[in-house]
């Protein structure tokens, strides 16, 4: 599964994207957040509890209870500021 | 019925002519053009001037999100023509960022749908602004007023 980061989260994590293979018990987006925190101090900081960020699953906005089964791409990003 | 995300500037007059060409059912065209505003941001004891910004987006998801917002507008109002052009990359104060144009037989639908599209794209399309100030780069935080503006259009059901 590909994980992508945007805006300040990309800089904090240190990479724009990475391929990860989480274990089966990582079933939801929320589980993935917790699992990714252990990859590096940057991940832990960007994905910290209480940090304001959202997620997309296969390029659609998703809540943290969305299941990961069959998912190809998960993205994490701060609130949108376009327009 | 068109959404574009591009680095290049756009020509408002040419875009509007193209949008309405050949459609004689359009009686009103409402247009919003968003520009990069020169701003002064107070932070701590420093006063920083924002001269430019870089707009990052999520290619693929951005187009899909804008298409969904456009489709929602067309469900809610009788629209003959819609166009959203949103730029990304480095933009300087005074540059155009976004063009939203809505054509309808009547002006009420055009005005309302145009405002709806601008409000929703600010909160539902994956764009992020990185501002350049004399003190360095700064990611723009979400504006609470934008959420409130977008929430006005949420259907109560």
General description of the model:
Chain A is an alpha+beta fold and 83 residues long. Chain A has three helices and five strands; from the N terminus they run βαβααβββ. Chain A has one domain (2-77): Ubiquitin-like (UB roll) (Roll). In chain A, 24% of the residues lie in helices and 23% in strands. Chain A is globular. Chain B has a single domain (2-151), classed as Molybdopterin biosynthesis MoaE subunit (Aldehyde Oxidoreductase, domain 3). Chain B is globular and about 50 Å long. The chains are: A alpha+beta (83), B alpha+beta (157).
Cα end-to-end separation of chain A: 31 Å
CATH level 1 class label of chain B: Alpha Beta
**What is the CATH architecture descriptor of chain A?**
Roll
**Integer count of domains of chain B:** 1
Major β-sheet annotation of chain A: 5 strands, mixed
Mean pLDDT of chain A: 95
CATH class of chain A: Alpha Beta
Query: What sequence of helices (H) and strands (E) makes up the elements of chain A?
Result: EHEHHEEE
What proportion strand of chain B?
35-45%
Low-confidence segments of chain B, given as residue ranges, are none
Q: Helix- and strand-based class of chain A?
A: alpha+beta
Largest beta sheet of chain B: what is the strand line-up? 1-6-8-2
Could you say what the CATH topology of chain A is called?
Ubiquitin-like (UB roll)
| Oligomeric state of this protein | heterodimer
Listing every helix as H and every strand as E from the N terminus to the C terminus, the arrangement of chain B reads EHEEEEHEEEHEEH
């Amino acid at each position: 599964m590909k994980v992508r980061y945007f805006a300040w989260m990309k800089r904090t994590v240190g990479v724009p994207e990475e391929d990860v293979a989480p274990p089966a018990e990582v079933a939801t987006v929320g589980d993935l957040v917790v699992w990714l925190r252990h990859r590096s101090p940057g991940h832990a900081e960007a994905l910290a509890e209480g940090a304001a960020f959202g997620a997309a699953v296969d390029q659609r906005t998703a809540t943290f209870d969305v299941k990961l089964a069959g998912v190809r791409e998960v993205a994490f990003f701060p609130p949108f500021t376009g327009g | 019925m068109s959404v574009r995300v591009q680095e290049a500037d756009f020509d408002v007059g040419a875009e509007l002519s193209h949008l309405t060409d050949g459609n004689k059912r359009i009686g009103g065209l409402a247009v919003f053009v968003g520009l990069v505003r020169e701003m002064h941001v107070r932070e701590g004891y420093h006063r920083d001037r924002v001269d430019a910004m870089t707009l990052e987006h999520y290619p693929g998801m951005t187009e899909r999100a804008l298409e969904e917002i456009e489709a929602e507008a067309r469900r809610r109002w009788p629209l003959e023509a819609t166009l959203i052009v949103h730029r990304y990359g480095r933009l300087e104060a005074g540059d155009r960022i976004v063009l939203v144009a809505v054509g309808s037989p009547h002006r009420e639908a055009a005005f309302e749908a145009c405002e709806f599209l601008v409000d929703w794209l600010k909160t539902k399309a994956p764009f992020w602004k990185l501002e350049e100030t004399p003190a360095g780069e700064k990611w723009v935080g979400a504006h609470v007023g934008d959420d409130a503006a977008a929430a006005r259009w949420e259907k109560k059901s």
